[in-house]
Amino acid sequence: MRRGNRLVIVSLLALAPLVSGCGYSLAGRGSFLPEYIKNIGVPPFTNGTSIFDIDRRVTEHVRAELSGRGKYKVFPVEAGNDAVLTGEITSITITPVTFNQQNQASRYAFIMSARVEFKDLKSGKVLWSNPSVQFREEYEPATAGAVADVTAFFGQDVNAYDRIATEFARSVVSALLEAF
């Protein structure tokens, strides 16, 4: 190996530790929030839909997802915290996406939209917001036949609340903490 090539390789190896902190981190583990944010208030989401109790379930799952990240203490009120995450579920729709041979819907798309905002209470700045967070998932009804409306869907599949709330919470908290 020529002396010039060795010099380049040694120089690169010497610089490697300096550039290794280039900002990459494992997905789901990073956070772009200020260091002083330790306590986060997550008051109940408001419900702008006719679906009973979806707001409570979504709020509980968002709180659990934030707590599960390990860095934050989550409280059910805004007051006395470093930051607050507020949300409103604005709409829920169910749309048939596949049909059987009798032209009956056999699979449905569930779409939930929400308005979400994360505010630093010390500086008064909004750190992250999305006026139209949308969650979409497809489901098969627990019983055969058409689902005429959203309330009928939940009557057929009570676990749908929790599946939807869990996935919605994961996507919102990931977007918030990873600054997407």
Number of strands: 6
Main sheet: strands, sense, barrel: 6 strands, mixed
The proportion of residues in beta strands is: 25-35%
Q: How many separate helices?
A: 4
Name the structural class: alpha/beta
Order of helices and strands: HEEHEEEEHH
Shape: elongated
Identify the CATH homologous superfamily.
Lipoprotein like domain
**Radius of gyration (Å):** 23 Å
How far apart are the first and last residues' alpha carbons, in Å?
46 Å
Tell me what you see in this structure.
The protein is α/β, with parallel strands linked by helices and 180 residues long. It has a single domain, classed as Double Stranded RNA Binding Domain. It has helices at residues 3-19, 54-68, 150-156, 159-177, and strands at residues 39-41, 46-47, 73-75, 83-99, 105-120, 126-139.
Q: Keywords, please?
A:
6 strands, alpha/beta, Double Stranded RNA Binding Domain, 180 residues, 31% strand, elongated
